[in-house]
Write a structure and sequence with these properties.
Length: 333
């Protein structure tokens, strides 16, 4: 966008987000809640989906007019993959760059917590029980990280720094990836699972990946392996995971995302043997809201100047392709 008019930017949020002060005087910011979205969208030039857990956008999307650019303050974009937006000329961007390292650190922390039985240590401390026991080494064990984008790559690098031998699985195989060496294709996953001590789900939610971790996948894993999901809840068939944990096919698991959130009080996942539950917080750090705003502010400047935007989602694929991002990042610096 390069015209001289002040653009109208809708911000879907219950309250004004922090960090948007640099847009004062550069944009007409309008904070809207879900009940006002349909009325405001036709006249909007851009939309910031700050409330990224909303499901209101498909019903509110206008038949005519509407924003030329939509940005979501999230890495996942599956909630925005409705036909009217996908088939439109509207450019969609996400918050790639904010979540990668925090999620990788969360995965590393959970791997260490499971291997070192921190939960057992804390429980014995609570009961004032002094009980010496041995735990496991993580160095030299094998991890399969499913998801070849920045989150999966950051996770692979971080686990590698702990001494794990990591295989990264993505949509497209690469024999000499400049960052991680080799990337395996999804078709190779079945052959990798039986050798893995740790399986990390960090993939986007697409038709190809939905329900990919089911009874069949868990049965392929070696007995005593552990499973972690930091991708999207619907990647996992939770009843099948429960069965694998109860049968001791898996020695443990850690879930940060779920098919339905928040997890209900009656969910059997709370009491599943060896399962660590966290409330969708693996990426959320003390600065994450400011970091999310900074990504949008930077892209707003590019949009106004008619320059290439960062983190453009391929709406046919349902995510930002890694190769395109790496090429764009080099050109944009």
């Amino acid at each position: 966008m390069t015209d001289s008019t002040t653009p109208r930017v809708l911000v879907l949020s219950g309250e004004p987000p922090p960090g948007l002060e640099p847009l004062d005087g550069r944009a007409e910011l309008r904070i809207v809640t879900e009940d006002r979205l349909a009325a405001e969208l036709p006249a909007a030039d851009a939309l910031l989906v700050w409330d990224f857990a909303t499901d209101a956008l498909p019903a509110a999307w206008p038949r005519e007019g509407g924003p030329r650019w939509v940005h979501t303050a999230s890495a996942g974009v599956d909630r925005l993959m409705f036909p009217a937006l996908v088939e439109s000329d509207t450019v969609l961007t996400n918050a790639r760059g904010v979540f990668e390292q925090p999620i990788a650190e969360y995965v590393a922390g959970q791997v260490l917590a499971l291997a070192k039985d921190f939960a057992g240590t804390y429980e014995r401390q609570r009961r004032r029980v002094w009980e010496h026991r041995v735990t496991e080494r993580v160095g030299g064990t094998r991890a399969v990280v499913v998801g070849g984008g920045p989150i999966g790559r950051a996770t692979a690098r971080t686990l590698g720094a702990l001494g794990l031998r990591v295989a990264l699985v993505g949509r497209t195989a690469r024999a000499d990836d400049p960052e991680v060496g080799r990337v395996h294709a999804f078709a190779e996953l079945d052959a990798l699972l039986p050798e893995a001590d740790w399986v990390v789900s960090a993939a986007p939610l697409t038709d190809q990946t939905r329900d990919m971790f089911d009874a069949r996948a868990f049965a392929l894993m070696k007995r005593g392996a552990r499973f972690l999901n930091v991708g999207r809840g619907p990647l996992v068939v939770e009843d099948d995971l429960l069965a694998a944990l109860r049968a001791r096919q898996l020695a443990g698991a850690a879930l940060d995302v779920f098919r339905e959130e928040p997890l209900t009080d009656g969910s059997p996942l709370w009491d599943a043997p060896g399962l660590l539950v966290s409330p969708h917080m693996s990426a959320d750090t003390t600065t994450w809201l400011d970091d999310l705003a900074a990504v949008f502010v930077d892209n707003f400047g590019r949009w106004r100047a008619g320059r290439p935007l960062r983190n453009v989602v391929d709406k046919k694929l349902g995510y930002v392709p890694y190769a395109a991002t790496a090429e764009a990042e080099g050109a944009l610096r």
